[in-house]
Amino acid sequence: MTDHRYSPAAGSDASGASSEAGAWRAPAASGPLHALVAVPGSKSLTNRELVLAALADAPSTLHEPLHSDDSAHMIQALRALGVQIEPVPGEGAFGDDLHVVPMSGAPAAGEIDCGQAGTVMRFLAPVTGLIEGEVTLTADASALHRPMGAMIKALRDLGVDVDDEGRWALPFTVRGHGQIRGGELTIDASATSQFVSGLLLAAPRFDIGLHLIHDGDRLPSMPHIDMTIEALAHRGVAVERPNAGEWVVPAGPIRGKDVHVEPDLSNAAPFLAAAMVAGGRVSVAGWPVHSTQPGALLPDILTVMGARAQRRGGALHVTAGDRIAGVDLDLSAAGELTPTLVGLAALADSPSTIHGIGHIRQHETDRIAALVENLRALGGEAEELDDGIRIIPRRLHGGLWRAHHDHRIATTGALLGLVVDGVEIDDIGTTAKTMPEFPQLWARMLSDESGDAAA
């Protein structure tokens, strides 16, 4: 295997150390990895299931849900709308299960803080139209830029009273009348598939259901729409797809269910990539046989980049090859994997181009610009493209890696820090958005505590 270690961090411990101004020094790998890692539940599935449970006809229990900033904002928001959500003891390693009693139908009013969570702002906007009362949706200052105009227009086209003071963005107020008629609706969801998912999740509660048509140049992250449709089907709602970019949802009940939440496969990406960077093998426990998560594409992608990936014994095992290969990738279906794959590409043996990801400019930060800026700060070479990024591997050096309030940018800095001495992430705490345990899990992967992945 090609040795990517430039100057392993002498004396740094596996947990990482805080340095000047509170930055987190990414721990270096002292040798090949042999780790079995468990990651918390999927953010995407947890927040979809919370919404469906809130709209259901009977109580639900979510087993092994994600407990993070994003899911906490969803729980707080649904409670404000009259949903009862209580923790109950469970068997998962990352916190309690959640018992959810659906909305009571009582009037609600107030303000909902979506934090940085796109799923909260996009999934709850239609739900507030089903409430009788006035609800204002707002968000963290760092998330007010995130696209909401298409959702505001869609709600108005459905007859919902929305006051955004002409911003076409958060914050805005929904004056709900307890029902939405539904019917045919056209939307441009080019900016994010979450517009489609948010409308589909609430559509069974519309008076006549919903016939939704996407009218735009592209539709990113199709696996997330498939995830929404599969979650609805599990609760008795059959969504028809007469044509590409078209969905028909009948009006009817959403069943209360006990649901087991899969591990977050995209959050597993930096751990699996770590095997390719440091050598050895990393395994992620509980890898599903079938999944609609975009992270389910990782085995194929990492194999193309030079690893060996095998699912065995309920885990996915990724073993380093003798090189990290440069690639030309269309990631339109899985843009959230971009930061990790850019980290790998920076250590590859040839240039890489990742395209189909223009929509990730409007995530927690402009991820393309942030990755280019950070790589250049470490001596790397990268170029922004209209719809992607090009990476030319160069010898990297230590320096400050800026998280830009983005959990996936932060974990990419940790990945590079395995073999680049002196990488410091300015805000590792931003990983709490979807994985509060990241620093501890990363340290455990680098220690002997996680066990032998070959076992």
Specify the biggest β-sheet. Answer: 4 strands, mixed
What share of the residues lie within helices? 25-40%
Q: What would the average pLDDT be, to the nearest integer?
A: 93
Helix/strand-derived class? Answer: alpha/beta
The proportion of strand residues reads 15-25%
Measured on Cα atoms, how large is the radius of gyration? 22 Å
Question: What best-fitting shape do the alpha-carbon axes yield?
Answer: globular
The N- to C-terminal Cα distance equals 22 Å
Q: Count of helical segments?
A: 12
The residue ranges in which pLDDT falls below 50 over 5 or more consecutive positions are 1-15, 449-455
Oligomer: single chain
Q: What is the strand tally? A: 23
Describe this structure in words.
- The protein has helices at 43-55, 69-80, 118-129, 149-157, 194-202, 222-234, 269-278, 298-304, 338-345, 367-377, 407-417, 438-446; strands spanning 17-18, 24-25, 33-37, 60-63, 84-88, 97-101, 110-113, 132-138, 161-163, 172-177, 183-187, 210-214, 246-249, 258-260, 280-285, 308-312, 315-319, 328-330, 352-355, 381-385, 388-392, 399-401, 423-425.
- The protein is α/β, with parallel strands linked by helices.
- It has a 4-stranded mixed beta sheet with strand order 1-2-23-22.
- α3 links the parallel β7 and β8.
- α1 (43-55) runs parallel beside α3 and α7 packs parallel to α11 (407-417).
- Mean pLDDT is 93; it is low at 1-15 and 449-455.
